[in-house]
Design brief:
This is Amino acid ABC transporter ATPase. One of its GO terms (molecular function) is branched-chain amino acid transmembrane transporter activity. Belongs to the ABC transporter superfamily. Keywords: Amino-acid transport, ATP-binding, Nucleotide-binding, Transport. About 35% of the residues lie in helices and about 25% in strands. The protein is an alpha/beta fold and about 230 residues long. The strands form 2 sheets. Strands 6-7-8-3-9-10 form a 6-stranded mixed sheet, sandwiched between helices. It has a 4-stranded antiparallel sheet with strand order 2-1-4-5, covered by helices on one side. Helix 3 packs parallel to helix 6. It is globular, with a radius of gyration of 17 Å. It binds adenosine-5'-triphosphate. Adenosine-5'-triphosphate binds next to strand 2 and helix 1. The site of adenosine-5'-triphosphate (ATP) has 11 residues, from strand 2 and helix 1.
């Protein structure tokens, strides 16, 4: 479904991504692991159109989409939940959710809103509350729910568990698995390596801008070198 090859991305003169390649099969969950500063967020920004690579190709459903803007990619079915969530603090939960569907012209938005509010009962309870007054976990759920309302084929999640309490983290991973089971392909960036791999089919390991390992999620979980380097934290 997604094929990234030979990607080189720079911030000014500083090269951050060096010859990145990865693939995401339709229906799967794929995780990118890596330490702080390895280039995980830069990879997500390059795939979602927030950054343009100097070299390389991003293909989505067989089409070359390299260099397209985020709104163009959203229309093609790629939605990003960015690091730090970036929900609209001064708008209500409902208004935030409606923003997720702003580009849609079909008549199933109401139906999808109902579906999302059923999946995230906490958002239903807080429909009229301002986004900025939600807790961290609730904001993450809102950001994911808003992305789902764009009806993505591929959902990109950048560190969805960041800064959340362990119980909430478990909830978030459960929700990601459910979203995948209902037909959405997921590419995930995580520092919470063990939990991310447990729900994933495949994983990549990024180190200072280069992919240094990849494999089936189960194999990475069982690989002592990977365990030591990236899976130390529970
Ligand atoms: P983290 O888990 O800390 O978010 P990451 O793996 O997502 O890390 P990136 O945010 O992609 O890492 O950053 C990769 C490298 O690029 C880092 O060395 C970072 O300092 C650098 N970098 C990120 N954003 C910029 C920027 N706007 N300008 C210059 N350098 C940047």
């Amino acid at each position: 479904m997604l094929k990234v090859s030979g990607i080189h991305t720079y911030y000014g003169k500083i090269q951050v991504l060096k010859n990145i390649a990865l693939e995401v099969e339709e229906g799967s969950i794929v995780t990118i692991l890596g330490a702080n500063g390895a280039g995980k967020t830069t990879t997500m920004k390059t795939i979602s159109g927030l950054l343009k690579p100097q070299q390389g190709k991003v293909e989505f459903l067989g089409e070359n989409v390299t260099g397209l803007r985020p709104d163009q990619l959203l229309r093609k079915g790629i939605a990003l939940v960015p690091e730090g969530r970036q929900i609209l603090a001064g708008m209500t939960v409902m208004e935030n959710l409606e923003m997720g569907a702003y580009h849609r012209k079909d008549n199933e938005i109401e139906k999808d809103l109902d579906m999302v509010l059923k999946r995230f009962p906490i958002l239903k309870e807080r429909e009229k509350q301002l986004g900025g007054t939600l807790s961290g976990g609730q904001q993450q759920m809102l950001a994911i729910a808003r992305a789902i309302l764009s009806r993505p084929k591929l959902l990109l999640l950048d560190e969805p568990s960041m800064g959340l309490a362990p119980l909430i983290v478990a909830d978030i991973f459960k929700i990601i698995k459910e979203i995948n089971q209902s037909g959405t392909t997921v590419l995930l960036v995580e520092q919470n390596a063990r939990q991310a791999l447990k729900i994933s089919d495949y994983g990549y390991v990024l180190e200072t801008g280069k992919m240094v390992a990849d494999g089936k999620a189960q194999d990475l979980l069982n690989d002592p070198r990977i365990m030591e380097a990236y899976l130390g934290r529970k």
